Amino acid sequence: MVHWSAEEKQLIASVWSKVNVEECGAEALARLLIVYPWTQRFFSSFGNLSSPTAIIGNPKVRAHGKKVLTSFGEAVKNLDNIKVTYAKLSELHCEKLHVDPENFRLLGDILIIVLASHFARDFTPACQFAWQKLVGVVAHALARKYH
Amino acid sequence: MVLSANDKSNVKGVFSKISSHAEEYGAETLERMFTTYPQTKTYFPHFDLHHGSAQVKAHGKKVATALMEAANHIDDIAGALSKLSDLHAQKLRVDPVNFKLLGQCFLVVMAIHHPSALTPEVHASLDKFLCAVGNVLTSKYR
């Protein structure tokens, strides 16, 4: 089980309480698809992903980004139980979606940059540590049921 | 992975924008790297790594200067960083995984101080550039 200090929990909760899940989610997913274009391989049904502008404006990207980050919120709410929280999602990503877990790490790194751009100096080094730890734990939990 | 003309232009644009803050951003990048990824501190047992450390400031300046050098010679990063590449291969031998960690922290610093400049396209170009720099610095490892 992952150990979270009181300070880490506080830093995570405090940032999350100010996150616009729809906006941040959409931006994070769009950036993933733009910065690491090979990740588009999972989204052939999303329509026009032909340029950064198309990706950013794509309503399916926005909707899916919101969905992904909303799900991330479950981790924030259940810091002491992330493995169990994501057990079913892990199976889904392996058995149905066939997503290489490396992609969870990529998205996590992108999310950190999106948070940094929104919170600026409030995204202190301690904050970055707590959040980088969280995205790592989430990525690990999502990969845990792979077989 | 090749830097397109757009990538080069994006990277040069960013570095000309931040040139007066390069040292400050270099130090902040290192501080964030040491805090976010404590294992990176293992390469600096001889450093004072507390916030505000003069050694970290000085080293941040070195790192930032090297990145600027690479950006200014973006058509020949390998040539521009050849000596640094030798140094990392022969003496420093920093595990290749750590260049990605430094790169991530540099992007975070850019996002914090210049969020509007770090558009998705620029973000992509910078990420590619930082990968290219890491590749050059580890190119002579074996």
From TrEMBL, chain A:
Subunit structure: Heterotetramer of two alpha chains and two beta chains.
CDD domains on file: Hb-beta-like (cd08925)
Gene Ontology MF, one: oxygen binding
Gene responsible for this protein: HBE
Alphabetical UniProt keywords: Heme, Iron, Metal-binding, Oxygen transport, Transport
InterPro entries reported in the protein's UniProt record: Globin, Globin-like_sf, Globin/Proto, Hemoglobin_b, Hemoglobin_oxygen_transport
GO cellular component: blood microparticle; haptoglobin-hemoglobin complex; hemoglobin complex
Superkingdom to which the source organism belongs: Eukaryota
Family recorded in the similarity comment: Belongs to the globin family.
Protein name listed in UniProt: Hemoglobin subunit epsilon
Keyword Iron-sulfur: no
GO BP: any one term: hydrogen peroxide catabolic process
Automatic annotation (TrEMBL), chain B:
An annotated GO cellular component: blood microparticle
GO molecular function, one term: heme binding
Protein's UniProt name: Hemoglobin subunit alpha
Domain Globin: 2-142
Family, per entry: Belongs to the globin family.
Purpose: Involved in oxygen transport from the lung to the various peripheral tissues.
Assigned keywords, A-Z: Heme, Iron, Metal-binding, Oxygen transport, Transport
UniProt superkingdom: Eukaryota
Matching InterPro entries: Globin, Globin-like_sf, Globin/Proto, Hemoglobin_a-typ, Hemoglobin_oxygen_transport, Hemoglobin_pi
Annotated Pfam families: Globin
SUPFAM superfamilies in the record: Globin-like
CDD domains (UniProt xref): Hb-alpha-like
One BP annotation, GO: hydrogen peroxide catabolic process
Biological source species: Eudyptes sclateri
